[in-house]
Amino acid sequence: MRKGPPSENVFMIIKRLENELREALGNKTTIEFPLVDIVDSDSEYVVFMDLPGVDKNKIILNATGNFLDFSADIPSPDLGPRKYLLHERISGSIKRRLTFPEKIDTNNIKAKYSGNNGVLEIHIPKTKSEQVGEVKVD
Fold it and tell me: Is residue 105 within 8 Å of 126, Cβ to Cβ?
């Protein structure tokens, strides 16, 4: 492993090490969040995204061409001061870009969030022409 320059801060070092690890393992170490399933049919894609505990008003979806950009804020659980043995739940701002093999109809995307099971379901029609738009979450 090579050393970085003296001006390299801890975040740059971590990012560099992460990239080196990905290269060494053949880019098989990446886990994207939130987790999604994407179903491909003749006329549309259907995305199922796990977002437990997220306020639907904090979910932002934007679509362009064959991309769907997602962002949301995951609240930090207010559990007071504690000594954790294991702390895996995440909080804060998250972003993810989904790329589809065909252009998507941004004017007719339907998104529905079920707070009961924490799943965002997005129906994305396919199209031939490029479009841009923001998606409302119901």
Answer: yes
Classify domain 32-75+91-138 by CATH architecture. Answer: Sandwich (2.60)
Sequence ranges of the domains in the chain: 1-30, 32-75+91-138
Cα–Cα distance measured from residue 109 to residue 133, given in angstroms and rounded to the nearest whole number: 9
Residue 42, C-beta contacts closer than 8 angstroms, at least 6 positions apart = none
Q: Report the alpha-carbon angle 46-35-69, nearest 5.
A: 65
Place of tokens 């997220």: 54
Would you state the structure tokens that stand for residue 114, as one six-digit string?
């079920």
Q: Could you give the CA distance from residue 8 to residue 10 in angstroms, rounded to a whole number?
A: 7
Q: Read off the pLDDT of residues 107-125 as tens digits, 9 standing for 90 and up.
A: 899 999 987 788 999 999 9
